[in-house]
Amino acid sequence: MSDYLPSGFNSPVTRRITLLMGAAAGLSAFVPALSASADESTDKRPELRIAVQMNPVSQEPVDAASNVAFRNNFSIHETVLALDMRGDFSVKPNLAKSWTWISPTVLEMKLRPGVIFHDGREMTADDVAFSFGPERLLNKDAPGYPTYRTNFTSLDHVEVVDSLTVRFVTKFQDPIFLQRLASYAAVVISKDAWQKNGGNWTTWRQKPVGAGPYKVESYTVNESVVLAAHDQAYRGKPAAKRVTLRIVPEVSSRIAGLLAGDYDIATDLPPDQLSVVTASTDHEIVGGPVPNNRILFFDKNNPALKDPRVRQALILAIDRQAIVDTIWNGRTRVPNGLQFELYGPVYLKDYPAYKYDPDQAMQLLKDAGYNGEEIEIRSQNNYYTAENPVTQAVVAMWQAVGVNAKMKFVESGKLFEASPTRATGNWSSTGQVPDPYISFFTQFSSAGNLSSFKIWQNADFDALGAKMEQAVDPADRAKIFRDMLHLIEWEDPGVTVLHQNAVFFGIRKGIKWQPLPAFQMDLGAGSLAFEEQKS
After folding, report:
1. Thinking of the domain 212-281+508-528, which architecture would CATH place it in?
2. Which of 42, 93, 259, 268 is the most buried (most CB within 10 A)?
């Protein structure tokens, strides 16, 4: 996703990414690599080579949140708390080993001792307070402030109690504050490394110093990210000496490289190509659905879409089940609305499924006075798995009800770029935590992309989100969520879901790795092994 975050957590700070790419392009030439975790001559661990469709242009979670950023950053950083991604997505200890609510707005946390950053320093409470403090997150001029607006709006400040104890102080009783501290952006960085970097954001965002199982060895724009094992990671010594995530945009090239032995794993393979991999005796397919919905956004300021009935017609004209059955070979599903079952008590099990009704769509177009104006749908040339064929199918379905629909290829960084023809385009929404506030509201609120790029904004939607943020009872949250879904998906359509996303990997046999049901790739100790290492 440039990191204009099709996964759903894009924020205005990412505008700097494009401006900084030129400055960052030569980073590997003048930024010294972090020292290797073991002497190269004695470290006999294998290297893992991964062919990816794209890499994030920043390795700093407060600077980039996208499908590809989630994938990389899980190896580089550790969050305060974690989610049980192989279970029910409940909150569990991580950098904090225990916690106690001192009051409804004061959370005291005991930190895990012996956590070592990539720079060799041991984590203390000062690092936690700094990571969530004004210089990095809370102030309006801090690089992470847009992420604060989407993920940490309830946070007031963090207090240091002793070297391994902190207190998070919130502005109000926040029913999902623990989940916020388990979200992708709740990482702890080395305060000392940040300060030694001297405020150079361009270099920091490419080589941030975290505590994950791998550290950034090099970053080359439009080419690769190379991660070196962090053998002092608190989870244990990684099985791979080095991980290289190399950009191979074309699916056919990723598969060819995998089968030729150039890569050990190839990511984001479409359903119609999986048999090419399984036909090889040396390779297999792993992966499946992830908590991410493929969506379209609607620019309600486009003259052709100004009347909500036109947007409603576009929604009714899509045969989503046909897309799942034919293009996805039934390997994913159509959700009932823009939501995920991992929302638990806030999940709306009885929310109506999407209706396919081309006759009603044609009537709505007639009632709205639609007169054949061109409606452009932007596609990012298979940034998302099977993006192009899905887009072509949607165009055909719209044309079948009389819409003058046209597909236009754009770079991911230009997905929301203003132009007279901007009307709708491919995007996605990720369920990062088990509650719709962060996973749903902040993506589409006035703090998100649709508003900042003047695509869609609704004052009633923002007001409902403000109520949801402080609603403690799950039943109250669910009721508010229902109203918000109806508003953005039908009453004043800003988005519509196409299908749930699924991620498939081709992998060389002999590598023992099972993906999480999420975009994050867990390549740390206990999650990755090589058969050739066994003896």
Report:
1. 3-Layer(aba) Sandwich (3.40)
2. 268
The arrangement of strands across the sheet holding 155-162 comes to 96-103, 106-111, 165-170, 155-162
Closest CA to 21 of 50, 63, 62, 49: 63
Q: Does domain 77-198 fall into CATH 3.90.76.10?
A: yes
Which residue's structure tokens are 């030439």?
29
Find the range with the poorest average confidence among 37-46, 173-182, 395-404, 487-496: 37-46
DSSP 409-467: E--GGGTT---TT--EEEEEEE--SSSHIIIIIHHHSTTSHHHHTTS---HHHHHHHHH
Fold type of domain 290-499: Dipeptide-binding Protein; domain 3 (3.10.105)
307-328 pLDDT, tens digit per residue, is 999 999 999 999 999 999 999 9
For residue range 247-265, list pLDDT tens digits in order. Answer: 999 999 999 999 999 999 9
Q: Is the pLDDT of residue 9 over 50?
A: no
Looking up tokens 């290829």, which residue turns up?
Answer: 409
**pLDDT number for residue 18:** 36
474-486 and 459-470 helices cross at what angle (nearest 10)? 170
Q: Please report, for the chain, the start and end positions of each structural domain, with discontinuous segments joined by +.
A: 77-198, 212-281+508-528, 290-499
